[in-house]
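Q: Joint fold for the lines below.
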Amino acid sequence: MNTGAGAGARSGLIARLNRISTDGRYLIVPMDHGITLGPVKGLVDLESTVDAITDNGADAVLTQRGVASRVHPNKNTKGYIVHLNGSTVIGPDTTDKRPTGSVEGALRAGADVVSFHINIGSDHEPDQLTQLSNLTEEAHRYGIPVLAMNYARGPGIDEHDPESLAHAVRIAEELGADVVKTAYSGEPESFEQVCAATQLPVVIAGGSRGTDRQTIEMVRGAIDAGAAGVSMGRSIFQHDNPGSITRAVSAVIHDGASVDTALDIAGLEIEV
Ligand SMILES: CC(=O)[C@@H](O)[C@H](O)C[C@H](N)C(=O)O
Ligand SMILES: O=CC(=O)COP(=O)(O)O
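A: Joint structure:
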């Protein structure tokens, strides 16, 4: 018998996805690196960083639940995603992401959406596949969307190989996620293959920070290849002016700007 719960949960999913996006495009700034990397530049004064990026075009910020109270006063009505697993670069194996929370805990922390990171090709893939699948089942019971951070990452794996990335994003869809984030393959031509591998909105990670032009060219290339946006952390929150780089990324994602126009709008050097 259709109790309507499915319809209710579906409408909740859509409403919450709209809180972390604008017209189907996503500018998410993850700052869950406080576990992975520690108190790095941009995450020490977390409040100022959140204020700068949410005041300049970001659709949502993403953290672990423990710092939620430091995010809410500054997130300027934008969306909030709570990350539910983690690892550190000082531990024995960064690919061994361990659960760090629950859907209930994320809701208590004020999350609109939850996220989970799995490393396809790592020694921990089997457990992580099961954990992501269980998470989507549980989250969807409450109408909570899941952002899957599916990397191709493990012994002998090329993290930017388009076929591996295509496999990683399809796994997210097969396991019930609502949005998938993965690494960029490096150029639009090969990333088209990645975006075509799934019906889910695909967003890209930024990886370690490069020049402003490299960052904006990456965003432009991903959008041209069919991506729906970014879940870009270090390139934004470690910038000397997180608000400016966010404005440039937003000009590409939300306004269709070219690389040079986006850099110019944000007052960033159009260095070649
Ligand atoms: C620090 C990294 O290598 C990133 O790719 C992280 O894996 C991504 C994630 N935000 C994390 O911090 O775990
Ligand atoms: O959670 C981390 C990401 O989504 C990507 O972070 P990056 O610093 O852009 O690689």
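Q: Anything notable?
A: The pocket of LIP6PEJA (ligand 1) is lined by residues 30, 32-33, 36-37, 117, 205, 233 (CB under 6 Å). The first strand starts at residue 26 and ends at 30.
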